[in-house]
Amino acid sequence: MFLDQQAQNEIKTRFANLVNPVRVINFTQSLECQYCKETRQILEELTALSDKLKLEVYNFIGDKEVVETFKIDKIPATVIASEDIDYGIRYYGIPSGYEFASLLESIEMVSSQKHELDDDVAEKIKMISEPVHIQVFVTPTCPYCPRAVYTGHQFAFLNRNIKADMVEATEFPHLAMKYNVRGVPRVVINETHHFEGALPEDAFAEEIIAALAETRDKPAN
């Protein structure tokens, strides 16, 4: 069991305030997947704590249509969505350790339909009209990573042009190498723009704006 009785009681108290139903969508497979089994166990235990949560489990190989619909490219993967909206909130890798906190926060945000961003930051994010892909590389032992992940997920919640992934660096070493992850959190925006550390939300938003400006300024090939 991942959640002991004390943790279950604490989460039940938090989840008593959930408002709208939340889909917790897990993509998995039984073979050749590190932590797929453990991720599913975490999600099963978590969703059992509230009737507002619905766990959906899909096979990464067999359920091709659903995989393509949600554009899942690696596993274990977890999507947090409302009944009718995919906000682009993704967890790639096991959401354990410190990262479990951001999972709870993202569920509560989607259920309540309320974010915690300052109004001026929220307005900046809402104004973005170009595609943004945020990847936040984390490890379960990083105490600063959940804040970076949750900030990215709040941005995705506010703007359908933004997709935000948590990526557990040790589970996807090829990606950690590709994006030169030497410390966490490391945030990669649209493949080329990056920064390290859990920046305040206003600074994080400015990094997105800077990344988009860099893309526009690049000469066409």
Overview of the molecule:
The protein has 221 residues and is an alpha/beta fold. The protein has one domain (5-216): 3-Layer(aba) Sandwich (Glutaredoxin). Helix content is 39%, strand content 20%. It has 8 helices and 8 strands, in the order H-E-H-E-H-E-E-H-H-E-H-E-H-E-E-H. The protein has an 8-stranded mixed sheet with strand order 2-1-3-4-6-5-7-8. Helix 6 links the parallel strand 5 and strand 6. The protein is globular and about 50 Å long. The model has no long low-confidence stretch (mean pLDDT 96).
N-to-C SSE series?
HEHEHEEHHEHEHEEH
Number of helices: 8
Radius of gyration: 17 Å
Just name the CATH architecture.
3-Layer(aba) Sandwich
Q: Summarize the biggest pleated sheet.
A: 8 strands, mixed
CATH topology: Glutaredoxin
First-to-last CA distance = 54 Å
Helix content: 25-40%
3D shape: globular
What is the count of structural domains? 1
Topology:
Blueprint (H helix, E strand, L loop, with lengths): L4 H11 L6 E7 L7 H12 L5 E7 L4 H6 L7 E5 L7 E4 L7 H13 L6 H8 L5 E7 L6 H14 L3 E7 L4 H6 L7 E4 L3 E4 L4 H17 L4
Parallel strand pairs: 1-2, 4-6, 5-6
Antiparallel strand pairs: 1-3, 3-4, 5-7, 7-8
Q: Keyphrases for this structure?
A:
single chain, 221 residues, alpha/beta, Glutaredoxin, 20% strand
How do you describe this structure in short?
With 221 residues, the chain is α/β, with parallel strands linked by helices. The chain contains eight helices and eight strands.
